[in-house]
Amino acid sequence: MPYRAPVSDYEFLLRHVVGFDQVAATDRFSEASADMVSAILTEAGKMSEEVMAPLQRDGDLHPAWLENGVLRTSPGYSAGWKAIAEGGWIGMSGNPEYGGMGLPMTLATSVNEMMAAACLSLQLAPLMSQGQIEALDHHASDELKDLYLPKLISGEWAGTMNLTEPQAGSDVGALSSKAEANGDGTYAVTGQKIFISWGDNDFTENVCHLVLARLPDGVPGTKGISLFLVPKRLPDENGNAGVANSLKVVSLEHKMGLHGSPTCVMQYDGATGWLVGKEHGGMAAMFTMMNNARLGVGGQGVGQAEGAYQQALSYALERKQGNTPGGTIIDHADVRRMLTTMKADLFAARAIMLACAVAIDMQTATNDADWAARAALLTPIAKAFGTDVGIAVAETGVQVHGGMGFIEETGAAQFSRDVRVTAIYEGTNGIQAMDLVARKMMDGGDAALRLLDEIEGDAERARASNPAMAEAVWQATESLRESTEWMLAQGDMNDRFAGAVPYLRAFARVLGAHFHLAAAQSDKGGARERLARFYITRMLPEHASLLAQAQCGAEGLFALSADDLAA
Amino acid sequence: MPYRAPVSDYEFLLRHVVGFDQVAATDRFSEASADMVSAILTEAGKMSEEVMAPLQRDGDLHPAWLENGVLRTSPGYSAGWKAIAEGGWIGMSGNPEYGGMGLPMTLATSVNEMMAAACLSLQLAPLMSQGQIEALDHHASDELKDLYLPKLISGEWAGTMNLTEPQAGSDVGALSSKAEANGDGTYAVTGQKIFISWGDNDFTENVCHLVLARLPDGVPGTKGISLFLVPKRLPDENGNAGVANSLKVVSLEHKMGLHGSPTCVMQYDGATGWLVGKEHGGMAAMFTMMNNARLGVGGQGVGQAEGAYQQALSYALERKQGNTPGGTIIDHADVRRMLTTMKADLFAARAIMLACAVAIDMQTATNDADWAARAALLTPIAKAFGTDVGIAVAETGVQVHGGMGFIEETGAAQFSRDVRVTAIYEGTNGIQAMDLVARKMMDGGDAALRLLDEIEGDAERARASNPAMAEAVWQATESLRESTEWMLAQGDMNDRFAGAVPYLRAFARVLGAHFHLAAAQSDKGGARERLARFYITRMLPEHASLLAQAQCGAEGLFALSADDLAA
């Protein structure tokens, strides 16, 4: 079943649900008219359908491999990358000074989601470049920007992120990679990095690594870390890729999925690098890149959910079973339940993702601190819920296929294997939840409570036309408010962390209901109103048990010792 | 991390939670003393640890394959099968007249669970034989029993189940395989069957297929289906495997997991078979086999949950990350939450599985209709919840491993890929749920409501020592009773089916709480009481949102048409 880009869904969401009109009304993004949005989405959708979707299974069957130390990519991926680059999709939201389109993140996020739906393992390559482009644009010197940004934006060169080290894992501050000044303005970077997505390829002239390392006078922990740009090939006097740098791909991981994306162990042996941002200021620069990437990974989850949903729906519409006259398995109540649940969750996750992107655009356009706080608040929710939905929808997609779901040829299993990593990389979903209840509540809960006020206000206004749904959304929001206040009252962070994951999920459930209600208001008597009713009646109630768990605190959790768990 | 058989967990559950003393008190199973139970579990555990666990990864890396039409199994599987056979584990609950041990199903289920934890793909082979042994014992002629049962029980020969056909899927009644009398008491069986687990092997002299097919005068649907025993090699005059029958393995499936288990497309071309049971009475015989297999598949889920839990726990206990002095990631609240959730769910699923087995044993020993109804009621719950827990625990196990979870070498991903099929085969979990709310409530809900009475009675008795937990269990049971009565009141089966899956899950949540409370009562101040409190406080509340969904009916579900879903 070929992938169909859900262009009209984006258009509906932008217009009626996530308030994109505010973005288009700013000077910064005044070009983003409805016609332009439609043209961009249609064009990117076409490329995703025609160029990328056919590569999805090839990448799974023919993973990237190392041939005498040279990385070879899956068949067709080189042409796929070129199509993405030539469409301008890598530099969509990039700075026009360097060849970018300067479009809103909301549009870039939509396009990224379509590419991720069509071929996740290839889409990860431009996503990594986009993060690097944004980090350099915000933190690099003009010299570095002039040299690197045009080539990254055009796709002549590609970018990667190098954070993880074997002993450090999620504790980035424990890294041991080192950098020393060479005396000529460059640095010698030495160390080993693991889990480097697209650490190399055979279709760009150069691969540019952003590497976290510690200078000799760097203090232990995150405050002693600096960020370096370390290219595979050193630029020559004309700024072209020249001689090889002292770095290499040591090996590739053998993964559960995402086979088309090479996951590299990278070795740096005194490789020449350039400082990005200030000495010991690497984490700030890295966070720019990570926040971008976190929303992007949330979008990967949403995209995979769309792909898996389309495939399962297509199967259910076509699969005749036994003697049911004329019917297919979509007429079974439980198959219908699965598909409708998938669609309702997909809508919720996509709306949250786009609302986060809108907040980022408003922050960019207005420099307003409230929008910045809104973007920061929604990022971990968009990442964790988007990927959780991706995994759940892909899983359910397998189930809709019955026995055929377990057979690789159908492709249903591949969605499930590929999307699984999205809940792990760019900060596990547990880390996203901890970020939500700790760092994102350092404002005393202002950003969260302000959002809940808005949701309740919208629910109040919806009472006239949709009283039952409005009341359910209002009540659930009140419960979330109480839970938020409980979180804020906990001085011991472990009491928050013990319930962070269910709290985040409940927050997403309420946000999803809010956006479904908005959709219902704009589609009276239509399918979107019926889908909203399904979600609010059947799926929103989950928030109550999640919030019960969120407020249990750490005591009962740690009452079971490690010995108890092992007994 | 090597697998350790949880022998003491079984002993605790049998003694304090699921009432195995009733089984041991019957004449039929009077040999099952505590010492004997302990000896059996210890011996089977040792075999699982030492022989089977080392094969788990080999089977994944080196799947069974067809070599010029001859099926070759994964390295070591032949020796593994012999160890299982020689231990007597295939015929544990088999009729002693034919060489079986005649032990309670409760013990066989425990042993099967250990074998499934250690190496799921190999364990599936004896599980298939066990189903065939039981079906033949109940339905075959004495001649067939005398010839086949000793060899199946000893493991000289193996057995399979042949239900599924490409066009029929879950609708068994739509099958098109045919059988015609040969005039000599045998039948010629012709047709194609798919998804035949262990349809062949290279370590038994013969493979015996139970095949569903329709006689010329068989009416359409399930009432016209007969069951035939069709061996790969026809028995010679001495009852040994003789000349080849007219059947073959056409191809093997390429699956997401369970690579060590060959999943065959089987072709029968006028193959010689013998009728099992009455003409057109095939479904009754098949149900004997399927009910056995459904509990067994539930046990596969529980076993895989145990294996995945042990591996994740071991990783969390050993994995140091960054600068945490002395600590490992098990000290993180969210890692602790994941592991404790896994353990609590595993306990619940295992208790439900064993309670179902106890009911089967009591039915066997007493012929009491109430026990038969209890076994019938619990079977779909044990199957669906056991496998759902297997999948969820394996998934969470991947997450506990962080980035390493996505790397195949750790084995965490294999649990997740292997166990996935258990929610699909032997009747999808959706079909189990439909069975629960339809067929298993044809008694007007007597069996279900009687069980709820017992749970409430136990909760009442627990109030004195555990008032808060007892109240929570009592209240949840009341909610489940209301929901059960709602189900019973629905005349249109689609209204039941629309909420069948959440209803089954809520039922399992309540049963799990009931068994956790029993464990708490027997372990005052101990780790099992703390685990019960965790489950009842944090996980039981889920029943409320599940029951809300269970009682929504079909109207809102079918309000979204197939066109709406595709829009």
TrEMBL record, chains A, B:
Residues 80-156 form the Acyl-CoA dehydrogenase/oxidase N-terminal domain. It is an enzyme of class 1 (oxidoreductase). It holds the Pfam family Acyl-CoA_dh_C. One of its GO terms (molecular function) is oxidoreductase activity, acting on the CH-CH group of donors. Gene3D superfamilies: Acyl-CoA dehydrogenase/oxidase, N-terminal domain, Butyryl-CoA Dehydrogenase, subunit A, domain 2, Butyryl-CoA Dehydrogenase, subunit A, domain 3. Its cofactor is FAD. Keywords: FAD, Flavoprotein, Oxidoreductase. It comes from the Bacteria. Residues 161-269 form the Acyl-CoA oxidase/dehydrogenase middle domain. It catalyses: 3-(methylsulfanyl)propanoyl-CoA + oxidized [electron-transfer flavoprotein] + H(+) = 3-(methylsulfanyl)acryloyl-CoA + reduced [electron-transfer flavoprotein]. Residues 281-439 form the Acyl-CoA dehydrogenase/oxidase C-terminal domain. Residues 452-560 form the Acetyl-CoA dehydrogenase-like C-terminal domain. Its EC number is 1.3.99.41. Involved in the assimilation of dimethylsulphoniopropionate (DMSP), an important compound in the fixation of carbon in marine phytoplankton, by mediating the conversion of 3-(methylthio)propanoyl-CoA (MMPA-CoA) to 3-(methylthio)acryloyl-CoA (MTA-CoA). Belongs to the acyl-CoA dehydrogenase family. This is 3-methylmercaptopropionyl-CoA dehydrogenase. It comes from Sedimentitalea nanhaiensis.
